[in-house]
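Protocol step 4 of 6: record predicted structures for both targets in the notebook before any analysis. Target 1:
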Amino acid sequence: MHIAMIGSGYVGLVSGACFADFGHDVTCVDLNEQKIEALKKGEIPIFEPGLDALVADNAKAGRLTFTTDLAPAVAKADVVFIGVGTPSRRGDGHADLSYVYAAAAEIARAVEGFTVVVTKSTVPVGTGDEVERIIRETNPLADVIVVSNPEFLREGAAIDDFKRPDRIVVGIEDERAREVMTEIYRPLYLNQAPLMFTGRRTAELIKYAGNAFLAMKITFINEMADLCERTGANVQDVARGIGLDGRIGGKFLNAGPGYGGSCFPKDTLALVKTGQDYDSPLRLVEATVEVNNRRKRAMGRKVIAAAGGNVRGKTIGILGLTFKPNTDDMRDAPSIAIIQALQDAGATIRAYDPEGIEMAKLVVQNIDYAADAYDAANGADVLVLVTEWNEFRSLDLVRVKAQMNTPVFVDLRNVYRQKEVEAAGFSYHSVGRPVADEHADTPAVSE
């Protein structure tokens, strides 16, 4: 099938490359000329494991092309996906749908023949109705069906998520779209991937509800971690004890510095605003947003406490800047608030991240960037593990200690065993584990 993917950011590029790998003819469209020229040269603007090879293979095979010219791509397409950004709107927290609506109007002017227009961007309930209204108003003769098909891609594992999904949600209001969408996903459908058809508004809400639930799960275990620290319990044992209950499950129960990234912060906030608009307040989600925002700054205070209550004039080494491993995404990363809290208290920051340094330079200021983890520890009074990249999981602790002014290690991801770190001569501080817990010996696993 011929597919036009409007937007070549994270969602559009990953989805377009995967659809091309299924054998479809995909044209990725973006207004950013520099991005398109880079993609034509095989230069990928984001870090996502395996994406560069996937794009290169399908571009070489002629199934994946890139352009800034929307009209011809849409005119020949059987299906047009809208994969543009929906950031939080400045001032009120609602999802900014201006890019989605602008794309809908352009599609309407360019569309020819029967076409399915699919919203893949994360959008609030009712957006599909407005997209359809815009298309009808712009081009009353357009033979178009508007569908919702939310993405469920985890950064760092997006290709695997696309090709081996837990579910494929498709929201339709016209039965003619069912056959088209089934054909689009046929390679997955034949492998028994659940293809779930719902109403369009239901599909839009499934995306937000899923992200909000996971965000609440993270926030819940973080609050349990605080309680564990005050009662002498071990949050990792608590997480395992409740996670073994099949009704709860063990994923997203790793205590840490709070959630960040491109989805959870903006989607929980947008869902809160939707609830308010419909006079159906979502109190649990509201509390999740508030608690998570407070937690990031609180982790800065935790580091200050580990340093003896004062970091003025001290150097803090930061390991990991991105909101999670295997991405260069700095959006709402916990490291930002942690670093700001430490800088406000007078600390000097020396940081290292395997992939996120260039992105970090755009959002945090006055940081000395290190060449590697050991360089980040050089001259540090406290070393803080913020993002659990694999290369931070097996550090030579003796070497790290030799680099530091004072051997204080704050592990915000519970990666290390307390006895192991203390045996190397460190003062060790983790999240939700008693200071002298003999059972705190199970390293955390990244989601």
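Target 2:
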Amino acid sequence: MIDYEKRYEILRNMLEDEGIDVEGVERKLKNFRVETPSWGYADSGTRFAVFKQKGSARNVKEKLQDAAMVHKLTGICPTVALHIPWDMYDDWDELLKYAESLGVKPGAINPNLFQDDDYKLGSLTHVDKKVREKAINHIKECIEIAKRLGSKDISLWLADGTNHPGQDDFRKRKHRLEESLGEVCSYLNSDMRLLIEYKFFEPTFYHTDIPDWGTAMILSRKLGDRAYVLVDLGHHPLGTNIEQIVAILVDEGKLGGFHFNNKKYADDDLTTGSINPYELFLIFNELVSAEEDGLKMNIAYMIDESHNLKNKIEEMIQSVENIFKTYAKALIVNRKLLRNYQEECDIVMAENTLVKAFDTDVMPLIYKVREEMGVPLDPLKAFRESGYVEKVVKERV
């Protein structure tokens, strides 16, 4: 049992002295949700090899089982993103009932437009109309699956691009993409969204058709109020100011969601918050600031990681833990004091205000919230003591 009560009282008194609404912070933490990805529970690897783990999920039902375990231990992960065709199933009504019996539900549906040979030179941007129609029909299939499962978001990452100068016409590809996405959006229900993800390179290396947040926002604006931008933390050049991108997208009403992960060099899919935790904090700082300023936001917080070396469930718990802890730190920033320093042009004290919140040990606050939610105070320890790994290793031979 973790003895946190005295530390909690000290932290609570300190925060209340600064004018922080501690009960309000706790309510927001209890209402916070993170979506985990089905593919994070299955065998994965690099472009060179797949690294198999004993007990890893082999099908969509086993992926849901693992995701349900993460939700049981953390209390904040009730939905699971699915990837089609990796998670195809014969009876979606039955799968939905099965997921609900485990205490979770399907979340965003992710189309696959990068594995078929037909998509070697592009999918929605391909010069051949038949290939574009195939890609459009696959997304429509995903939308239909989403409707059956009650999912509201279609999360689209487009691998389209070229490898060589002169391979294709940039502007014509842009026009094909706009036309294709327009047809896709017309198939969405009024309460559904298309989340457009961008990536500046890979798998193509000369250009990608949606390379950055600006291109994604232009597309989302042309497509109307059913299209938004999805920010993957690993999909930026080194040194990119992601928190500024987030602030602009929020201000423009076009931020639809996140794919949380971390990077050291490229799109590494590392544990969220493991490489640059301060960057993650600054991103959440912008989100909390916008919320307190009254901006309306409907943001899907999703993890997108391929756990190649660590135990898949343990790394997922680590990522959820880091996200939750970082969100808590952003919630305790003394915003009144920060704004005063900003207006006074006191750069040092403004920065110190952020650093103070980032350096604060918020775990007593999180322990209090978890105890009231009825989940383990230490999810990773609880998982290791649960016997779940030993159980699934025997079952998933």
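Step 5 preliminary note on target 2. The longest strand covers residues 105-111. The CA atoms of residues 109 and 154 lie 5 Å apart.
Proceed to step 6 after PI sign-off.
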